[in-house]
Amino acid sequence: MAVITELSSTLESREFSQHLQVDEKHSPRNVPRFCSIRYGIAFIAHLLNFILAAQNTILNITMVAMVNSTDHHSQLNNSTEALPVGSPGDPDKAPSSPAKAPVYDWSPGTQGILFSSISYGILLTVALGGYLAGKVGARKVAGVALLGSSLLTLCIPLAANLGLVSLIATRIVQGLAQGSGFGGHFGLWQKWAPPHERSRLCSISLSGAILGIVAVILLGGIISQVLGWPFVFYIFGGLGCVCSLLWFALVYDDPVSHPWISISEKEYILSTLNQQVSSEKQSLPIKAMLRSLPLWSICLCSFSHQWLINILTIYTPTYISYLYKVNIRDNGLLSSLPFIVAWIVGLLGGQLADFLLTKNFRLITVRKTVTLLGQLPSSALLVALPYLNSSYITTITFLTLSCGISPLCQSGIYINALDIAPRYSSFLLGATRGFAQTSAVLVPVISGFLLNQDPEFGWKNIYFLTFAINVLGFIFFLIFGEADVQDWAKERKLTRL
């Protein structure tokens, strides 16, 4: 007869606490940190997120050049017949673009569908990518996803010329690849990140997405104006193909298989993760996961924060263009400033979280504090924007502050699954990211609808809705969020009598 016996919660807590302490035998003073292989892996993952986020965001900035801006309130038009640049309207207010670059007559509602189409694919594969990474390795899953997304990015201009349906279909398929990449790369930290360095390593990796947004917004406008908007897709698609080769050459799934890692660093990582690496033979406790309030708090709070992020990334260029009627180059320069600040804060946020842990703050206190700082002030600042649009400097300042402090959540809610279920973290990080990604589908559709009704009140409604969703999401995490390993995620031993 087989009897399942669980490790006692006291033993689990003691082991987890020991792992959060620096192992004396393999102290970080004797093991390199920033010149180490694990930090090298983090910076390559930073590059992966940079490319994927850049390719995801290209349409947000090129849309200013792709549409006939003199007819934003036209009826929904599915035709992609190219219109001459400088068509009726004030030429100073129309985006400046080379004559060879086609311009389309897409209403805000149509643009919303295009913005959200890539998210449909991401939703289907981000959790699957995390699961597959736990089975076949993050190196293969994320590397293939990066290459696929890059090749499809190269095809976007052709798809746009073929028609709206073709463009939407291409974006959905690209989303399938991107979801696998975003979800799959999380599998690295299950085997590479010592518990007391998780915040730093994950924030380095995730902040690459912010830098990718910066690069597209900053350079996309200039490239669109000088060469034409199709070249933004060609350049970032080609760059992604090159980076995928770099990924396969330098990234390995775990310290044991890495050919260049030092013995001291390998022993240090393995000693801290000794009790936390999941067994591939263990099945996922799906029913227990679905009943877990701490896990649901991660999902809902991540969803609310991603709603804020999608509002900022998708509609910052559009909002600046609506208010100040600047050309696409100046729009890119202004829109990139908030994300440059966000990238810096994202890198520093992990340092802050790990510093607080060294000062004996409780892990859940740190997670909730940085989530609070990255969520509520950011959404509150957006609410004030429509009432300050007469002041150019104040508007840009509020946008910069709102976007700049939002990445603090990277060291909070986004890696909380590593705390509550380290054995299933690869799947859960992808699954919670997938749940949050539903906001990327809803935001453009709902925002496009609100802007179609009335642009002035539409912006106010968009920002009020964002604030309300963020408050509710954080309250749920504040009440139910935990950082202790959950019962369903603890090791089970099979004892035969």
% residues in beta strands? under 5%
Fraction of helical residues: 55-70%
Q: Report the order of strands and helices.
A: EHHHHHHHHHHHHHHHHHE
Shape: globular
- Classify the secondary structure makeup into a structural class: mainly alpha
Helix count from the secondary structure assignment: 17
Q: What's the Cα radius of gyration?
A: 23 Å
The average pLDDT is 81
Spatial strand arrangement across the major sheet: 1-2
**Strand segment tally:** 2
Described by strand count, sense and barrel closure, the largest sheet is: 2 strands, antiparallel
The low-pLDDT segments are 1-29, 70-97
How far apart the termini lie comes to 6 Å
Catalytic activity: 3 Na(+)(out) + phosphate(out) = 3 Na(+)(in) + phosphate(in)
Pfam family, one: MFS_1
Organism: Heterocephalus glaber (Naked mole rat)
Family: Belongs to the major facilitator superfamily. Sodium/anion cotransporter family.
In words, what does this structure look like?
The protein has a two-stranded antiparallel sheet with strand order 1-2. The protein is globular, with a radius of gyration of 23 Å. With 497 residues, it is an all-alpha fold. It has helices at residues 9-20, 37-66, 108-136, 138-162, 164-184, 187-192, 198-226, 230-250, 263-272, 286-290, 293-324, 328-358, 363-384, 392-405, 416-420, 425-453, 455-480, and strands at residues 2-6, 492-496. The model is unreliable at 1-29 and 70-97 (pLDDT under 50).
